[in-house]
Specification:
With 118 residues, this protein is mainly α. The protein has a domain of 75 residues: Ribosomal protein S20 (Methane Monooxygenase Hydroxylase, Chain G, domain 1, Up-down Bundle), CATH 1.20.58. The chain is 57% helix and 0% strand.
Length: 118
């Protein structure tokens, strides 16, 4: 066991990360296996989504994920699975109320400085 306080903290955080990484890896593997057993668009998009999450968390290299995605897409194409149309969320921004224009303020001439007496 570590003696130093910061080392103790690193042990705790490493355990948490290990659990989180194992969960992400397991969900990725199950998503890919479910796609391979039943090749349809829903499983295909789920597998791609899990791959993206694994890349984002640093579990899978981005080039490896791209290669796996390409392989999955090829299998989906040969199986005849139609891709699910991506639905974009329409976000409407609230209309900001325009503030009333500010009144023009007349500028005053700068005050004259007194000359120093000699």
């Amino acid at each position: 066991m570590p003696i130093i306080k910061s080392a103790k903290k690193r042990v705790k955080t490493a355990k948490k990360a290990t659990v989180r990484n194992a969960k992400t890896k397991r969900s990725l593997k199950t998503a890919i296996k479910s796609f391979l057993t039943k090749t349809d668009a829903k499983n295909h998009s789920a597998a791609q989504s899990n791959l993206d999450k694994a890349v984002k968390k640093g579990l899978v290299h981005k080039n490896k994920a791209a290669r796996i995605k390409k392989q999955l897409a090829a299998k989906a194409k040969t199986a005849g699975a139609k891709p699910v149309a991506a639905t974009k969320k329409v976000v409407t921004k609230p209309v900001a109320k325009k503030a009333a224009p500010k009144k023009a303020v007349a500028k005053k001439a700068p005050a004259k400085k007194m000359a120093a007496k000699k």
